[in-house]
């Protein structure tokens, strides 16, 4: 059986059931495949990447072990840890958010005495 001829035109070809505006050819194992242009610049097309250099060997080993225990790759493990870290506000962020709220007109000393009185009752 003879292989079909290779189309060398620069026309856009459908990828995954959609018709992208611009595509480029990507040779893979002698086959011509099409890749949308938006996939050229980064790994997944839209998310930024972070690279950390000069990680100590023992730190790398501990992180690799923790990832393995979590049944994740090191990248998946570190990504989940970074997302969790970014989701948790720092103390400065909490204080800044609380300081931006409109407070009451009660002086601090009066608030403290009212709180102490209420606690003493119960």
From TrEMBL:
GO terms for biological process: regulation of DNA-templated transcription. Residues 48-83 form the Antitoxin FitA-like ribbon-helix-helix domain. It comes from the Bacteria. Signal peptide: none annotated. InterPro entries: FitA-like_RHH, Ribbon_hlx_hlx. This is Antitoxin FitA-like ribbon-helix-helix domain-containing protein.
């Amino acid at each position: 059986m003879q292989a079909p001829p290779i189309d060398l035109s620069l026309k856009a070809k459908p990828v995954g059931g959609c018709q992208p505006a611009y595509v480029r050819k990507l040779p893979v194992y002698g086959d011509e495949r099409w890749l949308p242009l938006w996939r050229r610049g980064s790994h997944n097309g839209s998310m930024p990447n972070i690279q950390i250099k000069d990680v100590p060997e023992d730190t790398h080993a501990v992180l690799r072990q923790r990832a393995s225990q979590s049944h994740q790759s090191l990248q998946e493990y570190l990504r989940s840890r970074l997302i969790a870290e970014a989701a948790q506000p720092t103390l400065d962020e909490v204080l800044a958010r609380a300081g931006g709220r409109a407070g009451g007109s009660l002086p601090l000393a009066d608030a403290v005495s009212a709180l102490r009185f209420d606690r003493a009752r119960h």
